[in-house]
Specification:
By secondary structure, the protein is mainly α. It is 60% helix and 4% strand. Strands 1-2 form a two-stranded antiparallel ribbon. The longest helix is centred in the C-terminal third of the chain and has 23 residues. It binds zinc ion (ZN).
């Protein structure tokens, strides 16, 4: 009976709608954590001190979707709905985009690159005002959104392969591959660099991801065609529940065909997050992070309470890999 329930839960996991996906709990935490090590000496001490917060809260924006209606569209942009000339057509400035398409339509197809610019601005302000709780919150959030922008399937309306008969590919690419293989990835990405044009960079990141989409879809089809159906999936125990998941053979076959694309994008996410944090700090006038007021007891409790609230906001009837 337990086994059966587990299988159903596993099937649920595979058929899960994309709006609860993004990199997965494991990868988001790992990416935010690794980004800390790209930072220059003036920043790394502060970030290391708060590395647990920065990594543990890497998935807050995903949890927030259940509590805040506007949150969902911040995690993706369906570039393909705008046609072939999307690169030239889409206004990079939010107000211009609203004037051209209207807020509802933009929300429907995702607002990720515009939102990146907003959070970049907010984090710069937090540095300017030496506002430690906001620096922490916004660093964790910015890391999340930047990491999402590095996922090709976050740039298409075919986000879960639903139009190409590849249902489940979203979690396969961004959760299963890193979960099985990230220990073999090389995460030495070099130091964070100053981003001279963060708004353009945010768009550059999503266009780079979108350019990789063709291989994401094509190679999955190829590797699926080579494997008999019963070799594609396996059952694993997680928290005493049996879940149906992608087999090691299927996963490594895909990884090899992609020639390490997930690793490449994950490395890029780490570097780009460090670079955005660094840029916010520079743009704020390079405040001395070693002399910031430590968090007060009240602020600590406030941050903990926020996390708790988000936990409760997760719809209890849906399986969620963030907890
Ligand atoms: Zn997300």
């Amino acid at each position: 009976m337990v086994q059966k329930a587990g299988i159903w839960l596993g099937l649920l996991l595979l058929c899960w709608p994309v709006n609860v996906f993004s990199w997965g709990f494991f990868a988001h935490q790992r990416i935010n954590r690794l980004a800390v090590f790209t930072l220059p000496p003036e920043m790394i001490g502060f970030y290391k001190k708060h590395i647990i917060y920065i990594s543990e809260n890497a998935v807050n924006p995903d949890k927030r979707r259940y509590a805040v209606k506007a949150e969902g569209p911040r995690h993706f942009i369906d570039l393909d709905v705008y046609g072939d000339s999307v690169r030239h057509k889409l206004p990079r400035v939010w107000q211009e985009a609203v004037a051209q398409y209207g807020e509802d339509s933009l929300a429907k197809h995702g607002v990720l690159p515009w939102h990146l610019s907003l959070v970049k601005y907010q984090l710069t302000e937090a540095f300017k005002y030496h506002d430690v709780p906001s620096i922490l919150r916004l660093s964790a959030d910015l890391g999340h959104y930047l990491a999402d922008a590095c996922v090709p399937l976050h740039t298409t309306r075919n986000y879960n392969g639903q139009f190409t008969n590849q249902h489940g590919i979203h979690g396969f690419w961004e959760s299963r591959l890193p979960e099985l293989l990230a220990n073999e990835y090389d995460f030495f990405v070099g130091p964070a660099l100053y981003v001279a044009k963060p708004q353009q960079k945010a768009w550059g990141i999503v266009f780079r991801s979108h350019a990789a989409l063709d291989s994401v879809l094509r190679f999955e089809q190829e590797v699926a065609a080579q494997l008999p159906e019963d070799k594609k999936y396996t059952f694993e125990e997680r928290n005493n529940i049996t879940v149906k998941t992608y087999s090691k053979a299927y996963t490594t076959g895909y990884h090899q065909k992609l020639k390490g694309q997930v690793e490449r994008q994950m490395r890029y996410a780490v570097w780009v997050i460090g670079s955005f944090w660094y840029t916010c700090w520079v743009d704020a006038g390079q405040p001395d992070l070693n002399n910031l007021q430590p968090l007060t007891e009240e602020q600590k409790q406030q941050l903990a309470a926020e996390r708790q609230q988000l936990k409760q906001a997760v719809a209890p009837d849906r399986p969620h890999e963030t907890e």
